[in-house]
Amino acid sequence: MNIEEIRRIFQNAPFISALGIDLVSAGDGECATKLTIGSRHLQQDGFVHAGVQSTMADHTAGAAAGTLTGSGDIVLTAEFKINLLRPARGEALLCRARVINPGRKLMVVESEVYCLADSTETLVSKLLGTMAVVPLRDP
Amino acid sequence: MNIEEIRRIFQNAPFISALGIDLVSAGDGECATKLTIGSRHLQQDGFVHAGVQSTMADHTAGAAAGTLTGSGDIVLTAEFKINLLRPARGEALLCRARVINPGRKLMVVESEVYCLADSTETLVSKLLGTMAVVPLRDP
Amino acid sequence: MNIEEIRRIFQNAPFISALGIDLVSAGDGECATKLTIGSRHLQQDGFVHAGVQSTMADHTAGAAAGTLTGSGDIVLTAEFKINLLRPARGEALLCRARVINPGRKLMVVESEVYCLADSTETLVSKLLGTMAVVPLRDP
Amino acid sequence: MNIEEIRRIFQNAPFISALGIDLVSAGDGECATKLTIGSRHLQQDGFVHAGVQSTMADHTAGAAAGTLTGSGDIVLTAEFKINLLRPARGEALLCRARVINPGRKLMVVESEVYCLADSTETLVSKLLGTMAVVPLRDP
Known about the structure:
The structure is a homotetramer. The first copy, chain A, is α+β, with helices and mostly antiparallel strands. Chain A has a single domain, classed as Hotdog Thioesterase (Thiol Ester Dehydrase, Chain A), CATH 3.10.129.10. Chain A is built from 3 helices and 6 strands, in the order H-H-E-E-H-E-E-E-E. A 6-stranded antiparallel sheet of chain A has the order 1-2-4-5-6-3. Chain A is globular and about 40 Å long. The model of chain A has no long low-confidence stretch (mean pLDDT 96). Chain A binds chain B through residues 8-9, 12-16, 18-19, 39-45, 47, 49-52, 54-56, 58-59, 62, 74, 76-84, 87, 139, and chain B through 8-9, 12-16, 18-19, 39-45, 47, 49-52, 54-56, 58-59, 62, 74, 76-84, 87, 139. Strand 3 of chain C pairs antiparallel with strand 3 (73-84) of chain D, so a sheet runs across the interface.
């Protein structure tokens, strides 16, 4: 998929629009995204919810995989593992994902999520996962 | 924490309220939750986003761990792994989580997410993860 | 594969024979194995090495998947995640694995490893993983 | 721990000696190891067993964590996730591990395993995991 098709994946995914995850760049098995942290992203102690970080890391990884598939295919998450390294609190999250093994049917991906606070970026979570490439008609 | 304290974790977590994840039951290292699927939960192909399932599985597991901690402690996700077994489409998600190893500082947890469609419940994802128990003042 | 074919997977895998992992039972998406703990299985502090537990949990899960495939297919581990719940020390390890999602190309599996010490079985590790089913000629 | 103490972890771990996993270098949160592939490392189809790769990736990651701990502490694997990217066949495995989050009690680590065949190194597996740092007397 080209950058316009990737952009449409962000626009046409209501959960991603609702969270405010924006596409920054995509191409050649890589993707970067950004999210401005608001109170709606928090858990009960005032930190960004693990689910927000997971969603961002997963979706960005899926888009990185999408840059390597044909437009007749869709990308579905088969599984992922994420380590939350420290509580995340700040102004924004930045995510960078890349495909580390571009198989025809399975793509292994990794993502890093950074939290921007007081002009400093800190790695807050890391994902390692597997995306399934599936024909559009047969998910 | 008792059921009222667990309930407050759901009410005081803006991301969980926004998603519409409701507490069904909690106690003795277990927790169950429910979510009515709406269009805001979907990804670009009309399925429930992996991030919604992950958030629900993670938060429910955290609450299961919370039933075994004192009220001076908070529970933070250290890491989790989730397998998405099949595309999820239907009316509601149901999640059941339990602690499989109740350590003092680390609790190993698992969650299962079921999708309810046409009166049938199908297992759609499974999480295995680790929760860190941290004193309230020192996250 | 039937029980005899599964048995051959244990006999023809030199690493499994060398470790002394024995097939106990197999069928219908399930498998059980056993290992008598010896000093060769230990790490530097006298506990069973995480790698021994991982190998046993992975191989038993692969065999569980194998009970559901045709004899023209082989089963390869795509990925797994394992939680080591506590240091393992005792006389034997017992492992039980089962397929929780029997896909045609991917099977999601889980395994539990128990340590037998002083006539008591304790859960020491839990695996959640994905097996790829691949035609014999095209691994 | 310094390089000599790390070296002792390899010598005093019978499972690691038996597998032939050799320390190449260690320091500053990093470690590298090597293994010459023999028939005893294989599974039933002639590939290096996932358990061998897991053991190597796990132990090397534990040693990387060990370079950052005091000598009164031991490092135990809490959990790890490994993706097996492709069947591994060749002359040797090389592993490089590093700590990506050096916590006082938990260290998040990653390892990459490369297979050397016909003078070419190929990435065959990737691990993301968590090591627990535990006082010597209280594992």
